[in-house]
Structures are given as structure tokens and as C-alpha cells.
Design brief:
Helices cover 19% and strands 10% of the residues. The chain has 81 residues and is of the alpha+beta class. This is DUF1272 domain-containing protein.
Length: 81
């Protein structure tokens, strides 16, 4: 099951589970649409994978399948790319 991480790894912007602005790679590295598009150019700086829109979990499933609360933040992500 997707972790639905709460923030962008590059700029630390909040990305709640219902956000349409979240992008992920196949390892669930998570970025906001602005960083994914303008900074990372659609490629994950951690694994080199494609960044795609993160699926949104239905609201009625969040209580029994909560999103992650662990924030991952790497302010140097733009230099890694």
C-alpha cells in the first residue's frame, strides 16, 4: 500500500493525501508538482525513476489506512539532479 508521504522531499511543501499536486516514483519518493516539473524535470533525484501523479486514496479509506506522518526533506535535491 502506498505510504502517502506528507510532504515534498525537495521543498518540504505539505502534500495531504487528497492533494492532486503530489508526484511519486516507483519507490514512493514524493515531490510536489512544481519541484517535479521545474526542478527535477520529471526524474527522481534518488533513483532516476519517472515521477508520476500520486493516486489519491478515497476519503472513506483513510481512517483504516492512514497516510504516513514521516517527513523526508532533502534541501539539496535540486543539486543531486
Amino acid at each position: 500500500m502506498l505510504a502517502l508521504r506528507p510532504s515534498c522531499e525537495c521543498c518540504d511543501k505539505d502534500l495531504p493525501p487528497e492533494s492532486a499536486d503530489a508526484r511519486i516514483c516507483s519507490f514512493e519518493c514524493t515531490f510536489c508538482v512544481d519541484c517535479a516539473t521545474n526542478v527535477l524535470h520529471g526524474t527522481c533525484p534518488n533513483c532516476g525513476g519517472e515521477l508520476v501523479a500520486r493516486p489519491r486514496r478515497p476519503a472513506n479509506k483513510l481512517a483504516s489506512n492512514p497516510p504516513s506522518t514521516e517527513r523526508v526533506f532533502n534541501p539539496d535535491c535540486a543539486q543531486q539532479h
